[in-house]
Amino acid sequence: MRRRPFYSLIAVFVLVIGALAATLISGRSPQLGLDLQGGASVVLQPREQVPQGVLDQAIEIIRNRVDALGVAEPEITRQGESIIVSLPGVQNRERALQVVGQTAQLLFRPVIQQLPAEPTPTSSTSSTSTTSTTVEGAPATSPTTTTVPIDLSSTTAPEDDDETKQVILPEKDSQGRVTSRYLLGPAEVKGQALSGASATVSETGSWQVAFDLTGEGTKQWNDMATKVGAGNQIAIDLDGVVRSAPRLEVTEFQGSGVITGNFSQAEAKDLALVLRYGALPVQLDRQTVQTVSASLGRDSLRAGLIAGAVGLGLVALYMLVYYRALGLVVWVGLALTGAIMYSLVTLLGRTSGLALSLAGATGIIVSVGVTVDSYVVYFERLKDEIRSGKTIRSSLDRGFSRAYRTILAADAASIIGAAVLYVLSVGSVRGFAFFLGLTTLLDLFTAYFFTRPMVMLLGRSRLFTEARWVGVARGLNAAPAVASPKVKEPV
After folding, report:
1. What is the number of structural domains in the chain?
2. Distances (CA, A) of 466 to 325, 388, 451, 463, 473
3. Which residue blocks in 41-114 are alpha helix, DSSP H?
4. Mean of pLDDT over the chain
5. Cα separation values, 431 from 65, 312, 420, Å
């Protein structure tokens, strides 16, 4: 029984130090938000009311554009009918905001040549494409596609996707990896030609995508099919990325068509979503634009670190003066909590895109008070036990049991408040709520697995309990143990 506190402390120190060491060795650090490293933020509003699915598709398109810009850890959220885009660390803010706010564009282009995923120098423009997807129709002869010289070792940037020119665009898988590239001719049909699309199951049990055309769209599609010819491919180009490149089986469509191929259910639904919502461009207007310079972000970070360090130092000094050796327990406990928090924030930034904003840092600083309150509750409970006539040793376990119930109730209230605030709010307020809730959970962990065994070990040592200036007994206002004289029995 006496060794259990020692084993618990060893396990905690190994876990925390190991996590911190792994984080430092990896060379990673917490991902900073817009207000701590600079960048740009914009609120986009549709010109007219649109279905929620359209907004979801617009967010996905914007996310793809931002990824193409190379912005690290962007935050793209929806607030009501508005789309909020935060781009931390972006260099060319005006270009980024222009690309983000462009109207989505769906184009159908003839495939001239399929190219390797990795660009290689070549001068050939002959047609050598293969694919398993098809668009059904009535066969026709295949006319020759006119080509112009183009550098096949390059890839057209999304912002340079000109519908009137030949381009080289990539095709990506669900993980965002480039699987192929296509040399494409000028767009023959735009997304407005489609009136709808849906994922369906064919008679053979395979997934396919059925689409409907408008009256004018049917004529445009038939003209394109006749020009391109049966047996050749049509690429579905959405914002500079080829979403599919089916082969034409017919050249005449009666207001509808079917895209068949080796689709999974998810792939068929995704393609139908692209065709359905890509055909309805969402006009987005900038409502507000906020820019934060990198120097201002560094100043904010420096000021926050200084304020946090000063406040933490004053709290630590007060706890040492008031509780003596037990104040050292608070120091070590806060250091362990900080190490765990640093490792967790770094890990979540890498795996989930979590960014530490100024509001999040505020939540962490506020939570220091919650953590210190837990120590105060325990230490004051020990005082109550000692005033009732118990020794320090006998008060440790009983005092913690009673104190932990109070700590649990107080932390539960903080966690519930943080959760409600996180669900009902957006933006920086959610960051504050998330970090407040996370650090409060860590407080419950350190209180049980560190504070309790550490104080129990200190309580068993006379060096810490009876030392003249820093003894635990003085911190708890308890008199040191005194040996009682022996009573001499009468002869």
Report:
1. 3
2. 10, 19, 20, 6, 6
3. 52-69, 93-101
4. 79
5. 24, 21, 13
